[in-house]
Amino acid sequence: MPDSASPFTPADLAVVRRAYARQMLALLDVRNKAIEAAYATVPRELFLGPPPWRISSPYAGYRDLPDADPVLVYQDILFALDRARGVNNGSPSLHAKLLDALGPRPGDRIAHIGAGAGYYTAILSELVGPSGQVTAVEFDPVLADQARRNLADRSNVSVVVGDGALWPQQSADGVYVNYAVARPADSWIDNLAQGGRLVFPLGVPGQPRSDVGGRHSDRGAAFRIERRPEGFAARAVSMAYFVWAEGALSDLDTADIARLRESFERGRLGDVRSLVWKAPARADRCWFAGDGWALCFDEVQ
To answer: 142: which residues sit within 8 A by CB, 6+ positions away?
Structure first.
């Protein structure tokens, strides 16, 4: 634990962490005892790097917390992991919502794409248990090295440095993506096991901002995709504005981005029911139709 003048004992912090877990889930009406227990177990302060800890605000940019008291990290705020690239340890309440949609179960094989320094990887590790496996993929080698150190005591986690668009490389029960893209990667869909779930942020990239670093989506929503024998069910989970992808998925097709922006502006996110993948789709029955994929209104039959 970082040095601090905290008046809170380890036992006090355990109580704070339990309260934080309850509060973060309640904010977005998540009722999942396993996620609450994981939030109450994993010490967030161990995944933020050395103090001074820097928080991110969409209104005021970054600023340092006044001291390194661990009790301060148990709030619904973002902490900078790499200010220049705009990479943060993201909103705990939003992640609770997205993890609930992913639905990790004991024994599951999960790919965590864009793992950062590993805090939400550790949460996933708790959720899949000792019989499960989490592969944490991080593009930046410095952050990946931090994650490897932070997660070294978790035998059910492996950390790799690589482009998240290329993972998972074998069948997975869950794929959890923590950066915004304009289309899902082939590996995320093709390597889903039957019943496997993908949760990823789809978005339209905004302009780079010097006050928050990097590029983030200025239109965005997280989607849940589930592989079923008859096709892929899909639904929007929440509005979500993540840092933009690096690597293969950072390349942008101007026409696709324009159509995606139009889709967000038209609305009807809540009507999405299916993903049509590498097959023709009726544009009039789709929220968005891209090159080889579409999010559509028809139920999977």
So the answer is: 82
